[in-house]
């Protein structure tokens, strides 16, 4: 009888220990999945950021007088059509001294799908972002949860989509957030980045005098 | 049951282990990317430092032969910067980030520039080595810029690049509105202090040099603050007259007018409708017709003076454009153009276009000596505001105004429309009645710049700018 009781107690204690270990293991799994998602999200975010920084810093490069007039402006379009919001602009895309010709770069984005974040209740819209080159080369990002580009003029007044005054744009505010490319809903984590650009070539004064000698007059 | 539980536990641990391993790897990868980015930022800072040092070298060699500079600039190699290095490469007589068409367009704007000695391309490259194992081990950033050295007054003196600029105090009360007709900014500046009333609207920035004078910032000015002094000088009308072979007819030494000029030996008052159309005069963009007034020039209220398309007016006395007067190139004033009593902004913009006759500069220029209180630098710094140039309200005046003295704007509420800009060696004052005045900033045409306002010295102009980073440089 005593042996039976000991056996039952051992089984209960053993089962309890196993249960605790199993629960701990599952929790570890959740934690590692979350960390994995954040890190993968950050990694993909950085890839998109690198492209954006390269493109935006170079906006208007290779152009004689960016924004001199409507026909020669750097930012060519900023509008919405067929569900996409599109920003197109000119700039140099390579360092080929033999053909320093500008290229029209297109960024476009649209809402496409949803995802549930780690709290299990928050549903976020997914944004598909594409960077398209004239050759047709397209880089796509499907796990963007927020993507806004705001153009502002020299007084920081917004230049809205559809504006005819895109040549007035001097600043670009960008805000984007991303989740992991893995699709384990309920454990998704967001990572976010925002920045304001003021490309030198968007600013007519950026091309003007940067140094001058001989002032006061006669003192050179 | 016992075996099943055991299997579950072992399985759970196995899965956890795999996930943990992957998480560690991804954490390392994400960390490396952030690390890589930080290194990249440092590389970019290094490139910017190299570029700044290069520009300093260019500045130190103004007036020199820039074809000699690459030898010294290229000595900036592997200079240490924040754990990384930067290197400068310079190339004279080239700008590889602009195609030949664009380069030609620039050089046309600066006709005095000789590319072989005045054009240089600078490439500053910052590098930083990433120590993390899984990331790009070589972070580089390159800034490329092209510069020219040009005469300080090429293509136009710096003062003509402002919509309103004074060497002394700048005081705008009332509600004038300053707009840029073309792309750009109708900036205002004072080499002294500045006051802008709360209703002033400026499509540009307001800067001043002096401190300690009260200012009122308005929400309709792009920015309001301090800026470096802008050089300007007083011209001598007599030097201009003699260098253009305009004789003083009163002495019997020459005619009062030719196809090149009109000489008025004493003060003039224009009333009613007056048109100057000298045969063959005023049609030459590179050689404007000259009207030299040896005295004061008054354009009476409601008068309409029509000048040839390319005209330079020099007044040895004062200029007074009374309320309601118009000075135009074509036969139409803003009101007659729109057939209304108060043209809208859009109608005004259209009318300004008609006065330019296809050009993009103001076709007229006015040089007013004023009361003759010219002195050599520094400025006269008189506290009295002299009515050297007075504009009333209600009419329109085409042309860039340059005065050795003070400029006074009397609005009267009717609204004066000025097409050009104002450079005053003295003060600029707008009285409280300036509401409704509109100014359409346009740069002066090069042909209308008289030698007496040109400045000696050189300037550096940045022609082009681009920057490259990974992956472009790593390709």
Can you describe what's shown?
The complex is a heterodimer of chains A (220) and B (475). Chain A is of the alpha+beta class and 220 residues long. Chain A has one domain. In chain A, strands 1, 2, 3, 4, 5, 6, 7 and 8 form an eight-stranded antiparallel sheet that branches. In chain A, a hairpin with a 6-residue loop joins strand 3 and strand 4. The N and C termini of chain A lie far apart (111 Å). With 475 residues, chain B is α/β, with parallel strands linked by helices. Chain B folds into two domains: 130 residues, no CATH class; 297 residues, no CATH class. Helix content of chain B is 21%, strand content 30%. Chain B has a 17-stranded parallel sheet that branches. About 1% of the residues of chain B have low confidence. At the A-B interface, helix 1 and strand 9 of A face helix 1, helix 3, strand 4 and strand 30 of B. Strand 9 of chain A pairs antiparallel with strand 30 of chain B, so a sheet runs across the interface.
Q: Could you say which overall geometry of chain A the principal axes of the C-alpha atoms support?
A: elongated
Low-confidence stretches of chain A: 215-220
Oligomer: heterodimer
Instruction: Please state the structural category of chain B.
Output: alpha/beta
**What's the mean pLDDT score of chain B?**
82
**Quick check: average pLDDT of chain A?**
80
Q: Give the domain tally of chain B.
A: 2
Q: How would the global form of chain B be characterised? A: elongated
Largest β sheet strand count, sense and barrel closure of chain A: 8 strands, antiparallel
- What's the helical proportion of residues of chain B? 10-25%
- The proportion of strand residues of chain B reads 25-35%
Backbone CA Rg of chain B: 30 Å
Query: What is the total tally of β strands of chain B?
Result: 30
Q: What is the domain tally of chain A?
A: 1
Number of helices of chain B: 7
Q: Topology as H/E string of chain A?
A: HEEEEEEEEE
Instruction: Give the radius of gyration of chain A.
Output: 27 Å
Largest interface: A-B, 65 and 71 residues
């Amino acid at each position: 009888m005593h042996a039976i009781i000991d056996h039952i107690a051992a089984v209960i204690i053993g089962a309890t220990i196993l249960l605790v270990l199993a629960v701990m293991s599952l929790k570890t799994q959740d934690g590692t999945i979350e960390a994995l998602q954040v890190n993968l999200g950050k990694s993909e975010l950085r890839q998109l950021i690198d492209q954006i920084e390269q493109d935006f810093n170079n906006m208007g490069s290779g152009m004689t007088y960016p924004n001199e007039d409507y026909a020669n402006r750097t930012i060519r379009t900023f509008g919405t059509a067929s569900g996409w919001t599109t920003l197109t602009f000119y700039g140099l895309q390579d360092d080929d001294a033999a053909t320093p010709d500008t290229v029209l770069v297109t960024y476009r984005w649209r809402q496409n799908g949803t995802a549930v974040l780690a709290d299990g209740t928050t549903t976020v819209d997914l944004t598909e972002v594409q960077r398209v080159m004239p050759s047709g080369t397209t880089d796509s990002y499907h796990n963007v949860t927020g993507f806004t580009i705001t153009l502002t003029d020299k007084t920081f007044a917004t230049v809205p989509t559809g504006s005819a005054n895109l040549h007035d744009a001097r600043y670009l505010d960008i805000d984007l957030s991303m989740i992991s490319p893995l699709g384990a809903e309920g454990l998704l984590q967001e990572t976010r980045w925002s920045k304001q650009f003021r490309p030198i070539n968007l600013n007519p004064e950026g091309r003007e005098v940067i140094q001058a000698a001989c002032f006061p007059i006669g003192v050179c | 049951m016992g075996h099943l539980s055991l299997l579950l536990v072992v399985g759970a641990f196995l899965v956890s282990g795999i996930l943990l391993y992957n998480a560690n790897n991804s954490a390392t990868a994400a960390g490396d990317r952030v690390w890589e980015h930080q290194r990249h930022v440092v590389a970019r800072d290094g490139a910017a430092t190299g570029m700044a040092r290069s520009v300093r070298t260019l500045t130190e060699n103004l007036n020199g032969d820039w074809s000699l500079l690459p030898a010294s600039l290229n000595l900036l190699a592997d200079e240490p910067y924040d754990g990384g290095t930067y290197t400068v490469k310079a190339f004279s007589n080239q700008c590889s980030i602009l195609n030949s068409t664009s380069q030609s367009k620039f050089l046309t704007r600066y006709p005095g520039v000789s590319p072989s000695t005045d054009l240089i391309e600078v490439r500053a490259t910052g590098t930083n080595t990433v120590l993390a194992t899984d990331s790009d081990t070589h972070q580089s950033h390159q800034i490329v810029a092209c510069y020219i050295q040009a005469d300080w007054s090429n293509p136009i003196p710096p003062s003509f690049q402002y919509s309103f600029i004074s060497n002394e105090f700048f005081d705008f009360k009332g509600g004038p509105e300053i707009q840029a007709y073309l792309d750009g900014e109708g900036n205002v500046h004072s080499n002294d202090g500045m006051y802008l009333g709360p209703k002033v609207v400026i499509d540009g920035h307001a800067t001043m040099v002096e401190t300690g004078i009260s200012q009122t910032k308005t929400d309709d000015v792009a920015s309001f603050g301090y800026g470096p002094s802008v050089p300007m000088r007083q011209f001598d009308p007599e030097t201009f007259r003699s260098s253009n072979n305009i004789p003083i007819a009163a002495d019997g030494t020459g005619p009062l007018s030719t196809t090149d000029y009109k000489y008025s030996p004493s003060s003039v008052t224009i009333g009613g409708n007056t048109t100057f159309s000298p045969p063959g005069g005023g049609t030459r963009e590179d050689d404007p017709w000259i009207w030299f007034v040896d005295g004061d020039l008054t354009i009476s209220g409601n008068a309409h003076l029509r000048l040839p398309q390319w005209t330079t007016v020099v007044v040895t006395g004062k200029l007074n454009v009374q309320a309601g007067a118009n000075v135009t190139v074509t036969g139409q004033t803003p009101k007659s153009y729109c057939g209304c009593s108060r043209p809208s902004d859009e109608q005004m913009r259209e009318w300004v276009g008609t006065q330019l006759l296809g050009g993009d500069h103001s076709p007229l220029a006015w040089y007013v000596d004023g009361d003759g209180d010219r002195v050599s630098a520094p400025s006269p710094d008189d506290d009295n505001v002299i009515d050297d140039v007075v504009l009333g309200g209600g009419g329109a005046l085409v042309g860039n105004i340059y005065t050795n003295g003070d400029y006074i704007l009397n609005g009267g509420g009717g609204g004066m429309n000025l097409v050009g800009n104002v450079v005053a060696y003295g003060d600029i004052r707008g009285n409280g009645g300036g509401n409704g005045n509109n100014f359409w900033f346009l740069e002066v045409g090069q042909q209308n710049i008289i030698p007496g306002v040109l400045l000696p010295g050189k300037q550096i102009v940045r022609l082009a700018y681009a920057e490259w980073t990974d992956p472009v440089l790593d390709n």
